[in-house]
């Protein structure tokens, strides 16, 4: 279910993108929008064979002029500039310290494929189906699920998860510095209507036509008083507007999706 002509991959970074070698089998057919944070004079190396455009702070200033302040500086929320310049309907954004995870059979997990499946499948935010994703092969709506709700609604966000490093807040990380997430769950769920969630931008896909400016990561980084809330802000704004899917397969509503392998970047 490839969307090569309809999806851009947005990557915020301050370093060489060697991590793309792991993702080559899945990402190479797609166009990459790389948003370089920090010093624009630094040379960012991208592995050969990828179709990409590279933007730095100078490009942000040229494009937005006196409005350039709305793109975070020295923070991964600079990825919003990639959302802005993309002309595709769908966007996948991933951090440069996320690698291809393995399922229990030691097979590579194609997180991008699951994201696209989620975005092209309906969500079920108004009534919970106890077989998880009813549109997945081998599943359906269970007895008692209202027939009037079985068409579902469009999915605007596919929220991928992660293995290894948990996305904890700072106090929890201090208490549990060695804790790792090793439990793989193969399931897709819709986050119900009226329920907020802490969205994470490290493994995320969305429909630009549906969600639009609500997918704006709050200002962080240099000159900003608050940290580590940018993606959560976008999630709250998006969730109020739409509904989401959630899961280890990635998931208007939000779906939860498949994981990547998260590391701490140096």
Word description of this protein:
This protein has 7 helices and 10 strands. The chain is of the alpha/beta class and 266 residues long. Strands 1, 2, 3, 4, 5, 6, 7, 8, 9 and 10 form a 10-stranded mixed β-sheet that branches. The protein is globular, with a radius of gyration of 18 Å. It starts with 6 loop residues before the first strand and ends with a strand. About 2% of the residues have low confidence.
Strand-helix topology:
Blueprint lengths: L6 E7 L6 H8 L3 E6 L14 E5 L1 H8 L15 H6 L4 E5 L3 E2 L11 H10 L36 E8 L5 H6 L12 E4 L11 E5 H4 L18 H12 L3 E3 L6 E9 L4
Parallel strand pairs: 1-2, 1-4, 2-3, 6-9, 6-10
Antiparallel strand pairs: 4-8, 5-10, 6-8, 7-9, 7-10
Biggest β-sheet strands, sense, barrel: 10 strands, mixed
Low-confidence stretches: 246-251
Order of helices and strands: EHEEHHEEHEHEEHHEE
Tally of separate helices? 7
Helix content: 10-25%
Please provide the count of β strands.
Answer: 10
Any idea what the shape is? globular
Helix-strand makeup class: alpha/beta
- Strand coverage percent: 15-25%
The pLDDT mean sits at 91
> CA-to-CA gap between the ends?
35 Å
**Rg measurement, Å:** 18 Å
């Amino acid at each position: 279910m490839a969307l090569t002509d309809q999806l851009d991959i947005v990557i915020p970074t301050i370093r060489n993108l060697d991590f793309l070698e792991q993702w080559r089998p899945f990402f190479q057919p797609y166009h990459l929008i790389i948003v370089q944070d920090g010093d624009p004079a630094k040379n960012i190396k991208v592995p050969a064979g990828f179709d990409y455009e590279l933007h730095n702070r100078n490009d942000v200033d040229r494009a937005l002029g006196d409005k350039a302040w709305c793109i975070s500086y020295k923070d991964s929320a600079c990825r919003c500039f990639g959302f802005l310049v993309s002309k595709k309907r769908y966007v996948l954004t991933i951090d440069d310290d996320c690698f291809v995870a393995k399922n229990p059979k030691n097979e590579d997990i194609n997180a991008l494929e699951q994201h696209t499946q989620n975005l092209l499948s309906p969500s079920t935010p108004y009534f919970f189906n106890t077989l998880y994703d009813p549109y997945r092969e081998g599943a359906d709506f269970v007895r008692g699920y209202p027939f009037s709700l079985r068409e579902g609604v469009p999915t605007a966000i596919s929220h991928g998860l992660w293995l290894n490093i948990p996305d904890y807040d700072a106090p929890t990380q201090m208490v549990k510095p060695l804790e790792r997430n090793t439990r793989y769950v193969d399931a897709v769920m819709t986050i119900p209507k009226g329920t907020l969630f802490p969205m994470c931008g490290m493994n995320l896909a969305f429909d630009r036509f549906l969600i639009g400016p609500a997918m704006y990561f709050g200002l962080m980084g240099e000159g900003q008083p608050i940290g580590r809330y940018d993606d959560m802000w976008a999630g709250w704004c998006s969730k109020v507007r739409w509904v989401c899917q959630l899961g280890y397969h990635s998931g208007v509503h939000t779906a939860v999706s498949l994981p990547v392998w998260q590391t701490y970047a140096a």
